Automatic annotation (TrEMBL):
CDD domains: S26_SPase_I. GO terms for molecular function: signal peptidase activity. This is Signal peptidase I. Keywords: Hydrolase, Membrane, Protease, Transmembrane, Transmembrane helix. SUPFAM superfamilies: LexA/Signal peptidase. Residues 8-174 form the Peptidase S26 domain. It is a single-pass type II membrane protein. The gene is lepB. The chain crosses the membrane at residues 12-35. Pfam families: Peptidase_S26 (PF10502). NCBIfam families: sigpep_I_bact. It is found in: Cell membrane; Membrane.
Amino acid sequence: MAKKKNELWEWVKALVIAILLAAVIRYFLFAPIVVDGLSMMPTLHDQDRMIVNKFGYKIGKPERFDIIVFHAPENKDYIKRVIGLPGDHIEYKDDILYVNGKAYEEPYLDEYKSQVIDGPLTEPFTLEEKIGSETVPEGHLFVMGDNRRYSKDSRHIGSVPMEKVLGNTGIIYWPIEDIRLVK
């Protein structure tokens, strides 16, 4: 009888440890997320399932063109691409991104740019027009969706405070035929 109680106790301890370990990994390190909508097309598709890296992103600094997940004002989590870092001056002219006066290539937009026949993919704007500041504020990011005409992003909701960022993502794990690293 004592042997059975001891064995049961060992199973309970193992189960509790497994649950705690899973909770720590999900809350502090990695979490699954489902893409909801078309704002990141063609890079990400509606209902793609991805892994959010929470740990490394909180320690390191965000980089331009990272794909991040953040808490948006509507109590939803958004997936967008980092365009502007703190202190950056952002401007779009003739469908070209300018950061601090330097033109940047955005190869992830090439597919959509080639399909547009009625004007630019990204309407011209300056940062001041969109957020009322000449530069991205300290502790904030300027983000945009890859599907520029159909994305609710920093052009509409303003710059994103770093404390709202959950992490970055770059791994699609479902559907199986779409498993890949994204850039």
